[in-house]
Design goal:
About 20% of the residues lie in helices and about 45% in strands. With about 375 residues, it is α+β, with helices and mostly antiparallel strands. The chain has a 14-stranded antiparallel β-sheet with strand order 5-1-7-8-9-6-2-3-4-18-17-16-10-14. Strand 11 and strand 12 form a beta hairpin. Helix 3 packs antiparallel against helix 4.
Amino acid sequence: MRFRVERDVLADAVTWTARSLPTRPPVPVLAGVRIEADTTGTIQLSSFDYEVSARAQLPADVSEPGTVLVSGRLLAEISRALPAKPVDVVLEGTKVQVTCGASRFTLLTMPVEDYPALPAMPPVTGTVDGDELTHAVAQVSVAASRDDTLPLLTGVRVEIEGEKVTLLATDRYRLALREMTWKPSTPDLSAVALVRARTLNDAAKSLGSAGSVSVALATGSGVDLIGFEAGGRHTTSLLVDGDYPAVRRLFPDETPIHAIVQKQALADAAKRVALVAERNTPIRLGFSEGQVVLDAGQGDDAQASEALEAVLVGDDISVAFNPQFLLDGLGALDTTFVRMSFTHPNKPVEFTGQESLDGEDSKDYRYLLVPIRFAS
């Protein structure tokens, strides 16, 4: 195997392919990136850990075709450190020589015949705008659990009904829902998938900038799999197995009280007040006519409070939140104002966004946060 490739092209592709390599692989070959060079002038880089696969194609000047397996993380580090010159990669026996200008590296190869076959990309289910996908996944994944002992809750539930896609995630303390449109392969398409939030977030971030992203979904036919493809790169992931809890019913049908606050002002105030909040202690928000007062700390501890303008519809109400969960919800909104809708001080509060004080709130993104009970 012998080829020449531009340094930036190689570094970008290797870094992307190696991003999901396991830190402690169950077998050594899973720490590798497979490099396949063919006479058409194409290099394909592949990685796979039996759960997530990644493949990237890049143009190169191929003198001799071949396939080799080398340490993915080491190749990524080397390729990023090389000078801005063409890179020559040559297989010599059981070693790979990487030469760039005056820099020369020798990498040991691993037995490529022991490397597992990558899963095939399922048929394309539909396409979605990359930027919208990236934004929607980021909005929802903030509510997904990080606790691997609850694998179901580490996933994002993807519901597809025709041209509408709904993303849902919860960690039991908050719930995020985002609706968006896409172009399905068939107009009457209906499907449900549970995708690991970390994998979905990574795929959306890394492929979203390529423009349109193709989504491929395979369920009920042996291996349940989701795939994403854009710009000559595609990744697949096994779906999470299990029945996701019926979380939609948690959104209240009616909310007799709601408040509207300038979103960024509320986020900034919450950050300041939270400085005195001890770990796992809440900040309190007291809503009354024309204002909301944020405060934290009590007794002999450090204390802080701040008042902001707010529009309140309904009776006065006070709630307390985990500061980070509150900030996550505010940060996920991309509107000027936030509407907080209440049913009871101890019942979940729904956050939605709106562009003006007297406008309607948007239901495209909804964030439900469970308040923390506090002594009044």
